[in-house]
Amino acid sequence: MFGLGWPEVIVIGIAAVVIFGPKKIPEMGSALGKTLRGFKDEINNPQSGEEESDKDSSS
Fold it and tell me: pTM higher than 0.90 for the full model?
């Protein structure tokens, strides 16, 4: 995990809670998960995005 140990992960987590607040953390985690899922889908199926944009431009 990028050379980070548990103490570093805990400090980063505490800093995130202080900066963003405890109510915002789940929303940010959800958004990050959706973004990573989108990147993963595009890497696995790169042609699907090009076909959709071709259909939009020909309309």
Answer: no
